[in-house]
Each structure stands twice: as structure tokens, then as C-alpha cells.
UniProtKB/TrEMBL annotation:
InterPro entries (alphabetical): FAD/NAD-bd_sf (IPR036188), HpyO/CreE_NAD-binding (IPR038732), L-asp_N-monooxygenase_NS-form (IPR052189)
Top-rank lineage group of the source organism: Bacteria
Protein name: FAD/NAD(P)-binding protein
Ranges where the FAD-dependent urate hydroxylase HpyO/Asp monooxygenase CreE-like FAD/NAD(P)-binding domain occurs: 6-191
SUPFAM superfamilies cross-referenced by the UniProt entry: FAD/NAD(P)-binding domain
Organism: Actinomycetospora endophytica
Pfam families (UniProt xref): NAD_binding_9
Length: 672
């Protein structure tokens, strides 16, 4: 019987695993006499998958510049399999328009026009990225080694048959059903859609009963936003990338336009001001979040000095030392190392790129900085001595909680938030602030190292439940923000009165307005009510959008393959347990006490698929043993990988993960 592998998910992650399988298949004995069949399964176009499919609005961009996107390994990547170089996104575009790629022609229409003008610092559309990902997959298929046969299935991996991972049922989009005998299954389906949580389900029920509109967390591009009538007041909770998509689709997507006004005050971009020209189909969007501000804009400059030498204070050596202590607290023992590492990147660039704004040489500062703890008065004194301007100093408290001291009426809050966003925009597009990029470089390094520490069991269960999500949220806000032009658009919409900021600590509830005849007053009809820590008063609206992805949950997933695996007891979501002596309010925020226990024990589910970090085998069933045939890789697993595409020449954790998974899959499928 021919050996086979099923990859569930044909987007960038599944394609990346397939590329690594193809690269190493000959080393595992795959040849004409010993073939291996790989089945790549996805209802969406293979290569691009759901998120990057061509069939979406041409207004939606990537959050990475064209020079910062590649699907190919290079000589910086430390992995077992062979390095197979290939063009980055910008290199692919340049080669296509130069006719340097055999068989590749310019895409038709608007995407072709975009390829002609694409530059390294351009933020491409997602439609363009779809074409690049299609090229990557076709190149893999065109260069398969002898004996490796790939079958593309447009459909869903629907279930394991009779509870056996060795037999998978695929429901094809043409209505047919296929059952495949397989030696290994790889779950590479990306972010998990999930049915509403209990809290979200309660909102759904109440909204339907009261005639209100509620949009639960999901991919914004899949939301039926046309159902929101023009002129409606809308509350949005969340200011990350899902909100940016929401903003684009509700305004430009309805025919609104942005125009440059070179005569107005600068909006922080250094290029004048952007104004919004309405279409007449606008809604009135009120938005807030936990932090209360948008994610920081992407930097649009390069380092003036050399790249900071990284890692310096938080690298493999520190990981090994932390692991010798057993499980540690991220906030107490790891965060000071992360903060010091990011500070190292910041002040390295400030000294080398802007020597006129510091009073010390780099050698002097570096030697003294290295000897000091992050949380020390001596470190603060050194920074105050070396960096006279407070705006040139790294302030994590301000970055993490920028509105901590703000408590204002709605009009004052708008002025404050506009100034904040304009300042953030300036700091990320003006080369006077390249220290931000130095910090970003160190932040990426620290994130990869912290992921390794967490995946190797280095954190306490409590720290994984509380601290890891805090750190990942802070990382996303600093490193995974939108292109600067999106913040210009946000400012234009705010000035035009179509977007209103609600600030930090937003809370949204339903007011049924059925008390004391209040329903007779127009301002007390049933509606959503938003309040917040930064805002005096409240805002009411008939429509509420939870502008974020659904929280991961294997048990609530709508993915049929994961549901089948869970139903048959093959896997379950990660569950953490620990003794707790915290205050009740901290407990209530994350989990429930175990009844009857002498010492309070907390049980908390992360919702993620538990995997073994070394090879991405699923830790299955109740015993948590590595499954011999089932693998999972991506954001739905306990090995957290950066969500953005890989930058060239960065020894990407994603490439290393794909390769480690592929090596284990090949060993499982071939018996090598």
C-alpha cells in the first residue's frame, strides 16, 4: 500500500509544511519505488487559503511591506532539511514584470498594475499576496522529487472514520466524498473559528429578542457588514487589525474617498493631511478597547546605524538557565530580560543613528547598561543621564497603558486620542525616530526566544494563563500594527465625525430599557451601552461589533476535523492546573476553583491544541502522550508562532517549525 500524508489546510502554513516535505522526502527514502502521496485539503484556493484568497476586497492590504515577506528558507535558517531558496514577494514581483520567471506573466487587471509599481516599502494588497502564494505552491508542485505525489482537494477534511486517525473523510466542494488511508495527519488550518462563548451566546440571544444587531468575533472579511444600514450608530470593541479591516470596509468599501490636503495641518505623516470625502452611506462608528488605542503603525524607515547585536540579554543561554530553575513566572523572571533586550535595541540605534541626542558613547553606555537590572534606580539614572529628552527614552508603562491617567468627556477624549495617534504615526514614519525600529528588531528576537521558552514548558501554569496572553498582546500592539496610511485614514474619519474614540477599558452591555416605562423615551429604547475607564458618561447604539478574532477553543470549534478528533477522544484543548493563593477577583478573571480541594486549585483551558514543541506531535487524549500519527502547527496550537509572514534572513521560527514538523511527519509516514 502506498504511504500517504493528509495536510488539513492549504494556506501559507500548509504550503510551508508541504515545501519542507518535498525538500526532505529523498532523505527519508521516498523515490519511484517507495512513493509517498500527500493530500492537501482546503475548501479555499490552495496556496492562498481562506485569509489570502483573491476573492476579497481589493481595498484590503497586508500589514507587511513587500520586502519583508518570503515563503522561502535561506542560509540563516537553522533546520534539518535542505535550504531551498526562492524569491521574496518583492523579488517575485520584480522578476515577473521583467519576464525573468519562466511561465510567469503579469496578472490581469488591477493586480497587474500593482505588480508594475510595487516597491520594497509598499504595503501590497492581499489580492497580490494571493498571486505570490499561488506561485509558491505551483513552484513546489513543479519541482517535486521523484516519488512524491501531491493531490489537491477542494473540500474539507470532515472527520476521522470510526475514530481512527489512519482514515480521513474529505467532503469535496463538488458534493463527492473521499476516504483516504493515511500514515500521518497534519492540522495546519490556522486560526480557529468557534461557536460563540457563553457570554457571546447570551448577547446573540438578547440582541435577536430585542431587535438589535450583534456581530460576534470572526474574520471581518466574512462578516455581513452590508446588513448595517447607513446612518446607524455602531459600537466596536477592539482596535487591532480586525478593526482596521472593519474601518476600511465600512467607509472606503461603501464608496467613501480619502484626498490629500496639503494646505491643512500635518496629521503626523510629514505629508500634510488626509481628508475624508463621504459617499452618503456612512455609519457612525464608536470604538474602544482594553488599551484604548490602535496598534502602533508599521515603521517606514530603515536603521541609520548597524543592526543591534542580538540576542544580548535574552537568548538561548538565558533560556537554558531559566529551564534549570523549573517553571518560572514570565512577569517576574522573564519580562525583565525581555525589557532589557528591547531597551538594548532601542538605545543601540539611538546612539548610532542619532548621536547628537545622547550624552554618552555607545561603548560607555553599553558597558554600564549591561551590568544593571531593568528594574533598578541605577538603570533609570543611566538612561536619564545619557538621554536628555524624555521622548527619546523607552517607556514600557506608557506603551502598555497609554491612557492610564485619562478620564475625560467625549469631546476632550477625541482631542487627546487624535494627538496620540498623530504622534504615534510620526514616530513610525519620521526617520528622526529610528530608535523605534531598533526596539522592534529586538522585540522580534525576544518574541521568538520567549516562544521557545514557553513551548519547552518553562513557564508556570499560572503564568501561561495570565502573563503569556498579556505579553503576546503587548507584542502584537507594538509589532503587528497597520501601515501608517491606515492611521491617517482613521484620523481623517475622526475629524469628519464618523469615528469616535471611546478609550480604554471599554465595557459593553445591553440595556433592555423596560423599567418604569422608559421605553417610551427615544433615548431609552433597547440598545447596547458602552462605558470605559477613559470616558465620562456612556454611548448607546443599536449595533455592536466585536472587532476581533474568536478566542481559540478546540471544544467550541466549528472545524469538522477538530470536532471529530475531539469527539473520539483523540485530542482535547490544553488544560492548566495550579494551586492559587491570589485574590478572588484575579481568580474569577481566568478560571474556577476545584470544589472540595483543601488548597484552592485552579483549572483553566487555553482553548489551544497541545503539541510537543520538538516535532509538533499532538499531545493526545487524557494521558497527554505524543500521538504517533497526528501533528499540528500554527496559531491554534500551544507553540505560539508569530502571525505575520516571515522576513528574509531572520532565521524564522516559522520556517524552523515547518521543518521540524515535516521531519517528524516523514519519519512517521515512511518508518525512517
Amino acid at each position: 500500500m502506498a504511504r500517504s500524508v493528509v495536510i488539513v489546510g492549504g494556506g501559507p502554513r500548509g504550503t510551508g509544511v508541504l515545501e519542507r516535505l518535498a525538500a526532505s522526502a529523498p532523505d527519508h527514502g521516498v523515490d519511484a519505488e517507495h512513493p509517498l502521496d500527500v493530500h492537501l485539503v482546503d475548501p479555499y484556493p490552495p496556496g492562498a487559503g481562506r485569509i489570502w484568497r483573491t476573492a476579497q476586497s481589493e481595498l484590503l492590504w497586508m500589514n507587511s511591506m513587500a520586502a519583508d515577506v518570503t515563503m522561502y528558507t535561506d542560509d540563516t535558517v537553522t533546520c534539518t532539511g535542505p535550504i531551498v531558496p526562492g524569491p521574496s514577494l518583492i523579488e517575485w514581483a520584480e522578476q515577473v514584470r521583467d519576464g525573468a520567471l519562466d511561465g510567469e506573466t503579469l496578472p490581469e487587471g488591477r493586480v497587474g498594475d500593482e505588480v508594475r509599481t510595487l516597491r520594497p516599502n509598499t504595503f501590497p494588497t492581499r489580492q497580490l499576496q494571493s498571486h505570490y502564494l499561488d506561485f509558491v505552491l505551483r513552484r513546489v508542485l513543479d519541482t517535486l522529487p521523484e516519488g512524491l505525489r501531491v493531490h489537491l482537494h477542494r473540500g474539507r477534511a470532515a472527520a476521522i472514520v470510526d475514530g481512527d486517525v489512519r482514515r480521513v473523510r474529505i467532503d469535496e466542494t463538488d458534493g463527492t466524498c473521499t476516504e483516504i488511508d493515511t500514515d500521518a495527519v497534519v492540522l495546519a488550518s490556522g486560526h480557529l473559528d468557534a461557536s460563540p462563548s457563553d457570554d457571546e451566546a447570551a448577547i446573540v440571544e438578547s440582541a435577536e429578542r430585542l431587535g438589535l444587531q450583534y456581530f460576534p468575533p470572526e474574520q471581518t472579511t466574512d462578516s455581513d457588514l452590508d446588513a448595517i444600514e447607513p446612518g446607524r450608530t455602531v459600537i466596536a470593541r477592539g482596535m487591532g487589525l480586525a478593526f482596521v479591516d472593519l474601518m476600511v470596509l465600512l467607509y472606503e468599501g461603501r464608496g467613501g474617498r480619502f484626498v490629500e490636503d496639503l494646505t491643512g495641518d500635518d496629521d503626523g505623516s510629514g505629508r500634510g493631511r488626509l481628508d475624508y470625502v463621504p459617499s452618503g452611506r456612512e455609519v457612525f462608528l464608536h470604538v474602544g478597547s482594553g488599551r484604548g488605542v490602535p496598534y502602533h503603525a508599521k515603521t517606514e524607515y530603515t536603521l541609520r546605524g548597524p543592526r543591534p547585536p542580538l540576542p544580548r540579554f535574552f537568548g538561548p543561554e538565558q533560556v537554558e538557565e531559566l529551564l534549570t530553575r523549573g517553571e518560572v513566572s514570565l512577569r517576574d523572571e522573564v519580562w525583565p530580560l525581555i525589557a532589557k533586550e528591547v531597551g538594548w535595541g532601542w538605545y543601540h540605534e539611538l546612539h548610532h543613528g542619532h548621536p547628537g541626542r545622547v550624552t554618552t558613547t555607545w561603548d560607555d553606555f553599553a558597558a554600564r547598561y549591561a551590568a544593571l537590572d531593568w528594574y533598578s534606580e541605577a538603570r533609570e539614572a543611566l538612561v536619564a543621564e545619557a538621554v536628555p529628552a524624555e521622548s527619546d527614552r523607552l517607556d514600557f508603562e506608557r506603551l502598555d497603558r497609554p491612557l492610564a491617567e485619562v478620564d475625560a468627556d467625549l469631546d476632550t477624549l477625541q482631542k487627546h486620542l487624535r494627538e496620540y495617534v498623530a504622534d504615534d504615526l510620526a514616530r513610525h514614519v519620521d526617520p528622526a525616530h529610528t530608535a523605534e525600529l531598533g526596539a522592534f528588531t529586538a522585540l522580534l528576537s525576544a518574541y521568538m526566544v520567549s516562544s521557545e521558552l514557553a513551548s519547552r514548558g518553562g513557564l508556570t501554569p499560572r503564568s501561561k494563563a495570565f502573563d503569556l496572553s498579556w505579553w503576546q498582546n503587548l507584542f502584537s500592539s507594538m509589532a503587528s500594527g497597520p501601515p501608517g496610511p491606515r492611521l491617517r485614514q482613521l484620523l481623517a474619519l475622526s475629524r469628519a465625525g464618523f469615528v469616535t474614540f471611546l478609550g480604554a477599558g471599554i465595557d459593553v452591555r445591553i440595556d433592555e430599557a423596560d423599567d418604569d416605562g422608559a421605553t417610551e423615551r427615544a433615548d431609552r429604547r433597547p440598545g447596547f451601552v458602552a462605558t470605559g475607564a477613559s470616558l465620562q458618561g456612556e454611548v448607546r447604539a443599536p449595533t455592536f461589533v466585536d472587532a476581533r478574532l474568536a478566542s481559540p477553543s478546540v471544544r467550541r470549534t466549528v472545524d469538522p476535523m477538530l470536532a471529530s478528533l475531539t469527539e473520539h477522544g483523540v485530542l482535547d484543548e490544553e488544560t492548566l492546573r495550579w494551586e492559587e493563593r491570589a485574590t478572588p477577583c484575579a481568580l474569577d478573571a481566568v478560571a474556577e476553583r476545584v470544589e472540595g480541594a483543601t488548597t484552592p486549585v485552579v483549572v483553566h483551558s487555553t482553548g489551544l491544541v497541545p503539541v510537543q514543541a520538538s516535532d509538533f506531535r499532538v499531545l493526545s487524549g487524557h494521558d497527554g502522550e505524543p500521538h504517533p500519527r497526528l501533528f499540528a502547527v500554527g496559531p491554534h496550537t500551544t507553540v505560539r508562532l508569530p502571525g505575520a509572514f516571515t522576513r528574509p534572513r531572520t532565521n524564522s521560527l516559522s520556517f524552523r517549525a515547518n521543518d521540524a514538523c515535516a521531519q517528524a511527519v516523514l519519519a512517521s509516514a515512511t518508518g525512517a
